[in-house]
Amino acid sequence: MSGSGSNSLWGSRFEGGPSEALAALSRSVHFDWRLAGYDIAGSLAHIKALHQAGYLTSPELAALEKHFTELLRRVQSGSFLPKDSDEDVHGALERGLIEIAGAELGGKVRAGRSRNDQIATLIRKYLLDSADAIEVLVLDLVKVLTDRAEENMGIAMPGRTHFQHAQPVLLSHHLLAHAWPLVRDLERLEDWRKRASLSPYGSGALAGSTLGLDPRLVASELGLSGVTQNSMDATASRDVVVEFAFVCSLIGINLSRFAEEIIIWVSAEFDYAKLDDAFSTGSSIMPQKKNPDIAELARGKAGRLIGNLTGLLAMIKGLPLSYNRDLQEDKEPVFDAVDTLTVLLPAFTGMVATLKFNKNRLEMLAPAGFSLATDVAEWLVKQKVPFRDAHEITGKLVSFCEQNDLQLHQVPDADMAAISPKLTPEVREVLTVDGSIRARAGAGGTALPRVLEQIANLRKLLSKKDA
Ligand code: ARG
Q1: Quick check: is 67 catalytic?
Q2: By three-state DSSP, how is residue 170 classified?
Q3: Which residues contact 165 (CB under 8 A, 6 or more apart)?
Q4: What pairs with residue 227 in β-bridges?
Q5: Cα separation, 64 vs 338, whole angstroms
Q6: How remote is the CA of residue 332 from the centroid of ligand 1, in Å?
Q7: Per-residue pLDDT tens for 84-117?
């Protein structure tokens, strides 16, 4: 039997202790121990509220502050560790406090709070700190994408839709197209903070506390911006956790989409880019291999992050108000999401920072697949040809090229004129990759000035975050 001894938080109304099987199922301390520092911070804030409301004398408060500081030191140094008989982080820390403070004083701290409002507060604090760390890592990647875009300015490449050659674009434009979704993920985290930064402390088990403790005091001690509005909602909801997991999944998915392209780009058939040795792996049997493992792991880990999110969503979908033990299952998925991004992002950023682009190959392929056909059609429109006709004329030109194995610019003047008298030799002006890219100067387009604007805007964002 375990957990029903002196360290149990709830054993007194039970005749026997819990079965081994229940204790094993119920135990969360092996994963929620990572919240120990937050639990102690919550306790330090809580004892101030107890003191303010008259439940602790000033000497008791001072003594408890000292004891909690010592407990934190023991936790951080590893000299205090959870035992098998501890159910969760809260129980283990109460045991640790009583070891230091004695049962009389240590036993006063639990007044006016429940593990339900405690855990709902701790997970928010943990996720807010984790969001800070993830934000730094995502910013590093956005910066690297911006640097790479700047450094590779002016290189044309095939732009695709349906994975077929569509129109030429600048490599920088393509790279920045992977930066903006990450910027939006950062904005999502920023917005999420408003909802996450509220303290459920004082909600008690579900209905609030009778002791008249000031929840605002606890919130401000914990550096949270306010308090939750409804004690039942505060203890029973995990949408803040779900939303965090969603943003983590989206970051993973955004990496995964780029990863898929990198895997294709470094293949022999594409040969758009080469991976740096330090960010690629070999094969144990095939000596020639250089594998894009980081990109593949990014793709795989996106699946894992999505799994964490869907697990959380499924866990809360049928829960009646208010706290249910199911909610203990909220932690491992988000811990895993944080750990996954923490290990993935630096490797991914390093891979992108060191990727070597094959300029000649990219530029050679930029006009392939008749990717300048739209330019011909739009040139005809400028000659006052209705777009419907322009599309048809250009279609005929492409088909002529296919039949005669020619590129658009290789069609002789006479053959052009035979397809349509509107196709005068002046059309050749737009039959260059450079001209095509230069012409796409509308908002958000791939023309150089527009791409430089994007870089300037990203630099502004990055410097604001630095400040
Ligand atoms: N380990 C629990 C959790 O993570 C703490 C809250 C326990 N509350 C309870 N009523 N048993 O949800």
Answers
A1: no
A2: strand
A3: 158, 159, 365, 368, 369, 370, 371
A4: 199
A5: 32
A6: 14
A7: 999 999 999 999 999 999 999 999 999 999 999 9
Residue with tokens 């919240």: 35
Q: How far apart are CA 203 and CA 177, in angstroms?
A: 45
pLDDT at 4 over 90: no
Q: Which of 225, 267, 283, 399 is catalytic?
A: 283
- Whose CA is closest to atom 4 on ligand 1? 328
What's the predicted TM-score (pTM) here?
A: 0.94
Best probe residue, ligand 1, of 13, 35, 116 (max atoms within 8 Å of C-beta)? 116
Output the CA 128–ligand 1 centroid distance in Å.
20
> Which residue type is seen at 2?
S
Q: Whose CA is nearest to atom 12 of ligand 1?
A: 328
Kindly tell me the sign of the dihedral angle through the C-alpha atoms of 114, 119, 120, 122: positive
- What average pLDDT does this structure show over 430-450? 95
Contact residues for 413 (Cβ-Cβ < 8 A; gap 6+): 425
Q: Hey, which of 22, 34, 86, 88 would you mutate to test ligand 1's pocket, going by the most ligand atoms within 8 Å of its Cβ?
A: 88
Q: Which ranges of 203-316 would DSSP assign to H, the alpha helix?
A: 215-221, 231-236, 239-265, 293-316
Could you give the CA distance from residue 324 to residue 29 in angstroms, rounded to a whole number? Answer: 18
Instruction: Name the band, by pLDDT with cuts 50, 70 and 90, for residue 282.
Output: confident
Best residue for ligand 1 mutational test, from 119, 121, 126, 232 (most atoms within 8 Å of Cβ): 119
Asked if the peptide bond before residue 322 counts as cis, ω within 30 degrees of 0, the response is yes
225 among known catalytic residues: no
Q: Which candidate, 358, 360, 371, places its Cα nearest to that of 409?
A: 371
Nearest to 297 by CA among 255, 353, 354: 255
